Structures are given as structure tokens and as C-alpha cells.
């Protein structure tokens, strides 16, 4: 919600609900930690990639980057996700690059497409892990989101922070965007800041566009070939995508921000000028393939993350965990 990132009076009215949210979440966390509520320990190491706030901080690019880093070390990786926005009637559900994003969710399909690793979605993350291990040979599980899902035990935790917006007004839900207080960061293994360093950062991530891909033909073109266009984005922070295009020298005639995980239809997008390129994120593009038009272009991005001593320490921890498991 926009007021989470602005100085307005509405959040003061919601503070009693935030206090209740904090109390319930703390009790629930303590019950899992003390063993009064049952949690699940997977037989292989589990890495959580999550955040403290609601909304898009750049978790999916980090998951893709982490998969690629682990693959370079010769590890077999599987990814689990709750599958936000998925409309499948069957869970757990194995996802691949050809899965219907309406059924499987946009981010799981994108991860499968970019990494070619097995992905499984389910609100019950234990079931997702068990299905992956039953059907695949896997050394490490990466959980896309789930930092606050204490029902799942984890070996390592990565938190992604939006370096610009950080924690908004600093309040917990619903008065602010926080799921947990920033003090939680003292307990995680790696903090990646997206776009801009902040006081909490262990390293900086920059999301770099590589080229534009035509959704109809698959043609790849340099972004510098484009002078102007229109743009849509159904992500947690659409403004970041629009600003990126403008910084690349594209004059945006019209932009349209949709809700995160928006399910698209041709009727929603056909109103844009057919003679002008329509740019969208990869996450949007996987949901538009069935009715794409010749002037629609996706902008793939790569996470460029600075290799710092903290990152080296993170991978050293994982190596020790794997050695103990074997």
C-alpha cells in the first residue's frame, strides 16, 4: 500500500492492529522454536530467500542467481515456492518452463524457465520438498520466500532489501509493510540490498537488463535500438521497471502499473498502440505468451551481485553443512 512509504496519518490508526500482529507472530514463532508446534526438517540443506516486507524486493532474481552459483559448484538444486497467484486444484505441483503460469504462478514458471531446475509449488512446503526428493536427485533446496514460515526448518537464510524503499514507515502490518522487525536481520546469514546500499547491507545487487526479446518471434534486440515505447508492469514495485527503461534512454509514452501477480488478458493490453513497442518484465511475459502481439517485448534482467567477504562466508557455511550431511 502506498501509505506505507509516505508520511501520512493513517498508519497511526492501524497501530493497535500492528501490535496484535506482532504479539501473535512472536507467540507463534516461539511455539515452533520450543517444539510445541511441529516443524519439518528436510533431509537435504534448505536455503530460504525471503524478505522482511510485503511486496517486491527482488527475491526472484536472487533465487535465479543463487541457483546458478550452486550449479557452478556442481550441486543439483531444487526450488520450492508457495506459488502465489497459482490457481491449480492439485498441490504439490511440479513446475517446468512450459507450465501454465495461471496454474503454476508466474514466478515459479520464470524460475524454471531461466534455470531449468525442478520447481515445486505448494502452500505446504513440506509436501513440495518431499515430492521433489521423490522425483529428483537433489543436493540443496532453495525456498523462494518463506522467511516467516517457521514450520519449515532451514539451514541458511538470505534476506533481500529494497535499497531505496527499505522498510517504509518502519511499522509492522497492517500499519506498515513489515512482516518482522529489522532486529530479525541479526539472525540471518546474508543480507542483499537491491539497487542501493543501506546500513544493513552485506552486499549490493544491481538488476541489469540484457536485451529485449520479442514475445511473438523470439527475436533479441539491443535495448539501445529502441527510442520510445509503452510499458506495463505487474510486479511489487512497477516504478522501478519504468525508471530503468527511462534510464536506458527509452521515452515512455504511456505506462500502466498492475497488481503484483496480475493475470492478464488480451482485452487489458490491446488498448496500447500496436505501432509502438510495448515493454514488460519477464514475469509479465510468461503470462502473455498465449495471446502475444508482434510489438510486445520482454526485458530479461540479470542480478549482478558484488562478491564480498560475507558472500564468501555464506558459501563456506553451505559447504560445511553439505560436508556434514554427507
UniProtKB/TrEMBL annotation:
Keywords: ATP-binding, Kinase, Lipid A biosynthesis, Lipid biosynthesis, Lipid metabolism, Nucleotide-binding, Transferase. One of its GO terms (molecular function) is lipid-A 4'-kinase activity. Pfam families: LpxK (PF02606). It comes from the Bacteria. InterPro entries: LpxK, P-loop_NTPase. GO terms for cellular component: plasma membrane. Its EC number is 2.7.1.130. GO terms for biological process: lipid A biosynthetic process; lipopolysaccharide core region biosynthetic process. It is an enzyme of class 2 (transferase). NCBIfam families: lpxK. Transfers the gamma-phosphate of ATP to the 4'-position of a tetraacyldisaccharide 1-phosphate intermediate (termed DS-1-P) to form tetraacyldisaccharide 1,4'-bis-phosphate (lipid IVA). Belongs to the LpxK family. This is Tetraacyldisaccharide 4'-kinase.
